[in-house]
What does this fold into?
Amino acid sequence: MMPGSGIRIGRILGIPVYLHASWFIVFALITFSLAKQFAYQHKPWSETQHWTVGVLTSLLFFGSVLFHELAHSVVAQHYRIPVNSITLFIFGGVARISREPADARQEFNIALAGPISSYILAGGFFLLTKVFPSREMLGALAQWLAQINLALASFNLAPGFPLDGGRILRALVWGVTRDYSRATRFASRSGQLLAYAMIVMGIWQALTGSFTGGLWLAFIGWFLLTAAQESYAQVAIRGALEGLRVGDIMSCEVPTVARDISLEDYGQEVLRTGRRCHLVMSDGQLLGLMSVHALNRVPREEWAVTSVQAAMLPREQIRWVAPGEPVLALLERMASEDINQMPVVADGQVVGIVTRDSILRVIQARTEMGRLAER
It folds into this structure.
């Protein structure tokens, strides 16, 4: 699941909010489950009331998840960390921030804000149950939301990355060791242990009678395991690219093609050299960027009668990078903008080119060298 993907439903506090496709599945499941639960607990209600309260409760549950993510986001914005988006999906929600916190204190406060907000909501809904009896619709709704927000906050405090508790653990270890990478590895391993425990417990429950609940627990454990492993891999990437600038890894040999050759000829050039992108030049001037991706956008039968200039990315739309930009920041930018290559520009001149593949090769080489050094 790519955070920020899905259907955009609006902006809150300047932050775009999205619904991932998986959200509709879990919304339907929760609504169905709640309607059946209310039908069992409140038989005097009509079927319309069961479903109405089920839909409202499900919507307020996801409103609670959104409130939880907004709490993280507000604290991040307090520390001048831009929040790119909030996405609601099958396992709840995720706030996507543009960079990691600058120190352990920021990490601790951002992580803690989410569970605190859920505990506040749990308390608020609990107070509603004191005003409205649980047999009434508003009381039944409030009772369920109080319980689920209490459970949400408590579960998120489990000390396993990427849960809030795992981030709090990372902040504590970071504060003690002053080593971000070491703290992230520790929290990621804790997250993996927690995930394995959930998977084993879920399988055991599924085999001993609670099939649906056990399967759901194992599924959540698998998701947490994947997320924890990804966070561990990200630490390796940060370590491999730390201190590197674009000028250190760029290729100074910039492949070029003329603007008037056909796409058929350009395809042959790609097959001959293996190079997947070229700058389009004319009289020493940069006109655009041609790539295999742009080539494949044109139907194969039109290659012979279409020029490179007609299919290229125009110069004004090209994303470029300076030689002094950190490679890690460039990789994050290329991933977020779905770009595979960028020209390197200094003093208005193209001095090189860098591709995502070349960055990944550097990561692989430096990671392997690190392993050799450890032997």
Observations:
- Strands lie at 7-12, 15-19, 83-89, 92-97, 256-258, 277-282, 285-291, 313-314, 341-346, 349-355.
- The longest helix spans residues 47-78.
- The chain has three domains: 7-157, 178-242, 246-374.
- The radius of gyration is 26 Å.
